[in-house]
């Protein structure tokens, strides 16, 4: 076991190849959800179309899912759709500090995270 931990095998030997195979299997076969590598405001759930979160700096972030937006819609149009949806939900004026698109595993735009000024109304 010490040899495996210290990686003391010659390159091209069977134990060396076995260790490389185990490492590559771990990299390629472990599902991405196992690492929880997205912050909460970048995760979407099927239940909520609009979710309110707080980022690491304490800023309010709303995540708005895009459901009825065609696949080839320009990013600015999809962003405006998400902002309009947030206006419908909050029904009060707010100031947007910045937005960030959220893509699924195949690269399709599925939601937007919208940061609003902390002085804005709460959901």
What does this protein structure show overall?
This protein has 123 residues and is an alpha+beta fold. It folds into 2 domains: 2-30, no CATH class; 40-116, no CATH class. The chain has 3 helices and 4 strands; from the N terminus they run ααββαββ. The protein has helices spanning 2-6, 14-29, 75-90; strands at residues 50-54, 60-65, 96-103, 109-116. Strands 1-2-4-3 form a 4-stranded antiparallel β-sheet. The longest helix has 16 residues, at 14-29. The N and C termini lie far apart (55 Å). The mean pLDDT is 81.
What's the structural blueprint in terms of helices and strands?
Elements: H1 2-6, H2 14-29, E1 50-54, E2 60-65, H3 75-90, E3 96-103, E4 109-116
Antiparallel strand pairs: 1-2, 2-4, 3-4
């Amino acid at each position: 076991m010490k040899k495996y931990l210290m990686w003391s095998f010659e390159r091209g030997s069977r134990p060396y190849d076995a260790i490389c195979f185990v490492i590559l299997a771990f990299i390629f076969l472990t599902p991405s959800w196992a690492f929880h590598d997205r912050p909460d405001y970048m995760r979407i759930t099927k239940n909520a179309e609009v979710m309110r979160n707080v980022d690491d700096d304490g800023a309010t972030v709303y995540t708005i899912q895009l459901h009825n937006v065609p696949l080839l819609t320009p990013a600015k149009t999809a962003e405006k759709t998400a902002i309009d949806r947030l206006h419908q939900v909050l029904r009060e004026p707010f100031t947007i500090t910045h937005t960030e698109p959220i893509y699924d595993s195949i690269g399709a735009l599925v939601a937007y995270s919208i940061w609003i000024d902390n002085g804005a109304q709460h959901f």
